[in-house]
Amino acid sequence: MCNSNPALTIRPLDRRGFLAATVAAGIGGAQSLAAAEGGPVATSSRELPVREFGKTGVRLPILGFGGSAMVEKWKASYGPQLPRDQRIAMVRHAFHSGIRYFDTSPNYGESEAILGEALHDVRDQVYLATKVGVPPSDNTILQRSQVRASLEASLKRLRTDRVDCVQIHGPVFEYLGVERAKEIYEELVKLREEKLFRYLGATAHNAFEAMYTLIDSGLADQALIGYGYFPKGMDTLLSHANLAWRERCLSRARELGIGVVAMKVLGSFVFGYRAAEIVPGFTAEKLVCLRRAALRWVLQDERVTLLVIGVTRPSDIDQNVETLRGDLAFREEDRLLLAEFSAEAFRSPIIRRMADRPAPVGVPTPEPTNAPSFCFCTPRPAPVKSSGSRPPCRGLRARTG
Question: What CATH class has 51-337?
Answer without folding.
Answer: alpha beta
